[in-house]
Every structure is written in C-alpha cells, then in structure tokens.
C-alpha cells in the first residue's frame, strides 16, 4: 500500500495545519468559522474580546482556558444564544451574526451545553426524536394526520436507535431522561445534537462527569465524527483528552484568544502558562482549599510545560 | 334531607352546559400549561373575548358561524397581542401580562363609555344574542325529560346547548389526544421542559409558543361562548374567579393528560353541588343558602391545597413524571 493511503484523516489535517503560524488569530487553509472583533461585555467586565478567529473545516479544535475565560460565552455568541456588543462572524461563508439560535442550528452548527439540558420528563427516545430534522409532523395541522408523517418517524426512530447504540444508551431507550445519571445525560445531549445531522458540532465540556471507560469510547466517537467530515469545536479542561484527540488548540484567557497551535506544543507557549498560572503566582499554594481539581490541573499543565521546555533545551 | 333531590342536582351537573364550558376552557389551558408550560393566568380573558365577540357579532346581525368566528378571532388577536412581547421572555412575564390583560379586558367591556356596544356594567341580556343559536336547533319545540332531568329542547339552558357544548368538548379531546401523540406535541413538550435545548436543535420556539397560546385561547373562547349561552353575558362573571376555577379543574384532573380537563370539570362541579345542597338541607337550618355557597368555595380552596401537596400530578397524571421535576 502506498504511503498516502496509510495516512489517517488526523495526519492529513495535521499536514494541512502544519504551515499555520502558531499565533492568536492565524488564518487557516480552509476555515469554516471566521470571526472578527467579537466582543461581549457584562456590565463593566469584558467576557469576550476576540479580534480574529478561524476554525479549520473538518478538524477537531479544542478551546481551552481557565475558568471564566469566556469559552462558554463565545459558544453562546457563535450559536445565537447571546448577542454580542460588536463583531461579526461567518459560517461556511455565510454571515451568521444576526441569526437566531434555531436558525444557526438549521444552518448546520449545533451545540451542547456545559450544564446539560436533558428534557427530563421525556423519554430518552423522545429526546432523540426531537433532534431530527424534516419531520413534517412538527407542523400544527399536518400533525393531526399521522399518515403524513409516520414514514419519516420510522426513519427517525431508526436513526435514533443507531446513535443510542453508539452511545451505549440503547437500554435506556424508554426511561425518562430525568432518571439518567449526569454522565448519561451528557451522552444523550451529544447524541441528540447529532440527530440534526450537523456539519459542525460545538461541545461545551462533553466529558465532564463521564466515567473514564466511557470517555475512551466517547473520544473515539468524536474522532469518528471528524473522520466522517464533521467539524468539531469543543471546550475541555482535561489536557490529556485535548492532546489525545484534537488537531488544533485555541487558548482563551480573560476573553481574548492568547495562543493557538497544535496540541503537542501548545502548552509550551509562554502565554498559555501565564493564562493558567497568572492568577495563582501570588497565592499561597500551601492552602489546602486551593488544591481543587482546577488548580491541580493547572499545576499539572505547568509541570508539563516545563517538561517540554527542558526537553527542548536538552 | 332529601337525598334523591340532592343526587339529582349533583347528577345534573355532570352534563350541564357550564361543566362543558369549563372543560373547554381547561382543555385550552392544558394546551398552554400542560403541553407547553405557558403559565396563562388570564384564561377568563380569552373566554371573555369569545363571549363578547360572539354576542356582539350576533347582535349586529351576523349569522351564527360568523359570530363564532368573530369570537375566536377576538381571542386569537388577544393571544397574539399578549404573546408578542412576552413569549421571548422568561415564563413569569406571560403570567403577569395575562392576568393584567384579562382584567383590563374586563374593565374595558364593562366601562360605561362602551355601553352602546357591550352593554357596559349590565352586560348583554340573553335574549339579545341567543336567538340565532337557538334557531339552528334541529330539535322540535317544547321540552323533553330524560329520567328526572327535564330541560327545554332549544331555549337557554337547553338540550341543544348541551349537545353542542359536549360535542365541542369531544372534538377538543380528540384533537388534543392527536396533538399530544404527534411530533408537534413533542416539540411543545420539549419547550415545556427546556426551551433552550429545543432552540439548540433548530426549532423556532417562539413560533411554537405562539401557536400554543393562540390555540389554547381559541378553546377558551369556545368555552366562553358556551358559558354565556344558558344565561347572559356579564363582564364580572368573566373575571379572576373564572380563571382560578379553570386552573383548579386542570390541576384536579391532571395537567398534560387528555381527559384531565373534562374529569376535573365534572368532579369540581358535582362535588361543589353536593356540598352546597347538603349544607343547605341540613336540619335546623344551620347554614343559610349564601353561607352554604361560601363554605363550599372554602372547601374548594382547601381541596386545591391538599391536591397540590399530596397529588401534584392531579387525578389522571403520572406521579413518576411529576417527581422527576424535583431533580
Ligand atoms: N450572563 C452573565 N452575566 C454576567 N456575567 C457573565 C454572564 N455569563 C458569563 N459571565 C461572566 O463572563 C466570564 C466568562 O464566563 P464563561 O462562562 O464564558 O467562562 P468559561 O470560559 O466558560 O468558564 P468555565 O471553564 O468555568 O466554564 C465570567 O467571568 C462570567 O462571570
Ligand atoms: Mg464554560
């Protein structure tokens, strides 16, 4: 077999992104999302202030940054759930900045929420079916005539069953979503988003609360999505996962994009280390209460960054 | 005590026009609250639109179908006007705006400056607007008895009105049953649970909420028409108490169920009649008629409280579903 055939989609994307400069706001060879001068202020504080950002089509881009960096707010803006104070962006060449959340979703950009939104008093299957598109029975009058929509409903159910099996929720099919565990709800939300057959998925901390064994398979699913040609943008605090699956990493701090680069080298970036540890340089790390997961993650990141630097120096 | 008379009174309530009118209004409120999660605190306002729209159109010589359409159109316009500013906001705003709008509507139609159109304070006498509806009656003139129940065939509190009222209830039940099982009903249910989630899946949440608000209002309007047809149109009979009763009926029967509104209405009015008649007939005249009336309403209030505490899902609701809410 020729060498090109062996190249995985991941390698191909890595090659595409090789020439992209490792600095905030760098242009991508094939950008699906292009955002300019996006700002969002809450009272006096600026939650998001992104000068320029491009997201490569068909790649997995991780959006990382300390708590309160503005990642969720940026997601909300891009997906029409919040309105910016200024700025515009386009998706697939089409300006999106004025569209409602529903229209953004219909344009093919679908998101999940950091705080899961399972529809509790609906069954898992009903949740899934709700995600489907092109169901004429969702209109007031046709809904009264089942023959008009029964066929599509069957297709939708099959599509849902397939996804539920993929996400190991098939045994929960007829349970109320409200009876699922936190991790299962995350899975359901992601599966439900995929029911819309999006071209881009935006996942806000999809792994939070999902057990390690399942995380492995979830990571696999996300990579599968990419391999099928979907663009994935996800927020994640766990650097192992970010390194494991992402093709490109965008780092935010205090509302701005402070660094960009491939996952293997991003943590060596001076700006990233500052972003993560800046807030703690002058705190007493001997205080036990500070040793929450976030701080530990940050310390880990710092340690890794130093490791990389020593390696490079050597 | 005359138990037979009391029981006949009670059984008469089961199929009284007012019971059907309340059931229709509760079916509408069920589309709002049970299916979509919209908190409409002004269902009486929609009933008022239906009643006045129908009565005024009839007085101006419109045929029955056009008068019914006028009443429903008035309710639909009312719904759209209330919905435009509130449906994109959090749920509480709709509750506040509907209760206020229903009161504004009531004060408007009873204001003396509109006496020439709405009859002002006195309202519209039955004979001024019932004629065309009664003319449609296919039954022979006179009255008819079914066991102990004797009513006029076509006039006022008639068999004809019962047939139409309960016929509408039946249609309402079938429609709601269909809608609840349909993909359209599924979207509404999703909105009830979490509208942002539904929005994130590409559904036009605002449009769906508007559809539900208008649709439920239309059932309210029909209920309003049936409500006034046995007697007269009177603004103060279409006020907050009416809204409160419709809510009690819906919660009693079970929100988000198909038969809840009908069961709730029948139960509420039979029990109320039972208590009222029993108290009135107590030996020694312990309760006067007005006291009996007042006391039975106290009991309704207590029942509603007990219901919300011990059976929040209502009689027909699924307890499992309601308990999930607490998580
Ligand atoms: N609705 C709001 N009103 C006021 N301030 C807000 C609002 N939403 C977000 N913020 C502020 O904006 C900043 C960015 O918040 P955001 O939720 O985007 O952070 P994040 O990067 O997603 O953090 P995390 O990793 O903890 O989820 C925070 O300081 C937050 O307090
Ligand atoms: Mg966040």
TrEMBL record, chain A:
CDD domains per the UniProt record, alphabetical: ABC_Mj1267_LivG_branched (cd03219)
Biased composition (Acidic residues): 288-304
Segments forming domain ABC transporter: 33-279
GO molecular function, one term: ATP binding
Ranges where the record places region Disordered: 288-314
Keywords (A to Z) from UniProt: ATP-binding, Nucleotide-binding, Transport
Residue stretches of biased makeup (Basic and acidic residues): 305-314
PANTHER family: CONSERVED COMPONENT OF ABC TRANSPORTER FOR NATURAL AMINO ACIDS (PTHR45772:SF9), CONSERVED COMPONENT OF ABC TRANSPORTER FOR NATURAL AMINO ACIDS-RELATED (PTHR45772)
Name of the protein in question: ABC transporter ATP-binding protein
Automatic annotation (TrEMBL), chain B:
Domain of life: Bacteria
Annotated Pfam families: BPD_transp_2 (PF02653)
Presence of keyword Cell membrane: yes
Chief subcellular location: membrane
Keyword vocabulary terms for this entry: Cell membrane, Membrane, Transmembrane, Transmembrane helix
Transmembrane residue ranges: 6-31, 38-58, 64-84, 159-180, 210-229, 249-274, 294-310
Annotated compartments: Cell membrane
Membrane topology: Multi-pass membrane protein
Alphabetical list of InterPro entries matching this protein: ABC_transp_permease, LivM-like
PANTHER family with a match to the protein in the record: HIGH-AFFINITY BRANCHED-CHAIN AMINO ACID TRANSPORT PROTEIN BRAE, HIGH-AFFINITY BRANCHED-CHAIN AMINO ACID TRANSPORT SYSTEM PERMEASE
Protein name: Branched-chain amino acid ABC transporter permease
Organism (species): Actinotalea lenta
